[in-house]
Write a structure and sequence with these properties.
Blueprint: E1 4-12, E2 15-21, H1 31-38, E3 48-53, E4 62-68, E5 73-74, H2 78-92, E6 98-102, E7 108-113, E8 116-120, E9 128-135, E10 138-146, E11 150-155, H3 164-172, E12 183-189, E13 194-201, E14 206-208, H4 212-226, E15 232-235, E16 241-249, E17 252-261, E18 263-271
Parallel strand pairs: 2-3, 4-6, 11-12, 13-15
Antiparallel strand pairs: 1-2, 1-18, 3-4, 4-5, 6-7, 7-8, 8-17, 9-10, 10-11, 12-13, 13-14, 15-16, 16-17
């Protein structure tokens, strides 16, 4: 006999997720099962999986577990965290406008702002600038910052002609970022604190329509490298605009927030 496992399909700026209530356990999550559920031909299809759990420590309302589409667990996902707020409200009945959440990258605060969700993130690491490598036959100068997960940024004149799959994969797997690898963002700077970003996501192993931690990383490095002033409005590949805000103190980004749209698309059941 099969067992029914309920889920929600959620999306934030085109970054899509499968959401589960794991407070009572019993989901039977394995790397293989997660990958099959996220498969766009044989499963529901998603960039990753979100799971609501009870907090382990004091001071948090819930714990967020996040798994990439390949089934591997990641420390953090910016757009996933924003969708997590809707997942919590739908599965637990939580109605406060804010909630405190444990993640593997540290505590975050989620706030409902009209129809959007804002996430206050843990402080990123110290930006590292000007790393030169050769990848996919190109000499590339990259900047790097960890915004809960590692992100490399290449500044380009236009994102339209970038071979994201080819060049992103070559940088993601480059020995300079071994063994964990890195997410890769291709960033074009516009006027008025605006960016366009395309992202190759580690764990998805391809381009996604948006990446929240990548938007934050790109905004921080655009501020450091190009003098872009926060708040920064970032157009993602899916066409949505996310807003990244932060302050710089002694060369380090602090008080980082990410705001943008999130919604529940549908609910369903897997038979396992």
């Amino acid at each position: 006999m099969s067992r029914a496992v309920k889920f929600l399909k959620l999306e934030g700026a085109g970054n899509d997720f499968l959401g589960f209530d794991g407070r009572r356990g019993g989901l039977g999550l394995t790397r293989e099962r997660i990958a099959s559920w996220c498969d766009r031909q044989r499963g529901a299809g998603a960039d990753g999986v979100l799971v609501v759990e009870k907090p382990r420590g004091r001071g948090a309302d819930f714990r967020m577990r996040y798994y990439n589409a390949d089934g591997g667990e990641a420390e953090m996902c910016g757009n996933g965290a924003r969708c997590f707020a809707l997942l919590v409200r739908e599965t637990t009945g939580w109605r406060a406008k804010s909630l405190r959440v444990e993640t593997k990258a540290g505590p975050v605060v989620l706030e409902m702002v009209g129809k959007e969700v804002r996430v206050s993130m843990s402080d990123p690491g110290l930006p590292r600038l000007g790393k030169e490598i050769t990848a996919a036959g190109r000499k590339v100068k990259l900047d790097f910052v960890n915004t809960g997960v590692p992100h490399a940024v290449e500044f380009v004149r236009s994102v339209d002609g970038v071979e994201v799959e080819k060049n992103g994969r070559a940088i993601r797997y480059h020995s300079a970022f071994a063994p964990a690898g890195t997410n890769v963002n291709f960033v074009a700077v516009g006027g008025g604190s605006r960016l366009e970003v395309r992202t190759y996501e580690r764990g998805v192993e391809g381009e996604t329509l948006a990446c929240g931690t990548g938007v934050v990383a790109s905004s921080i490095l655009a501020s450091v490298r190009r003098g872009v002033k926060p708040p920064v409005k970032v157009r993602t590949r899916g066409g949505d605009v996310l807003r990244a805000d932060f302050i710089m103190e002694n060369g380090r980004p602090r008080k980082v927030t990410l705001q943008g749209p999130a919604r529940i698309v549908y609910e369903g059941v897997f038979h396992v």
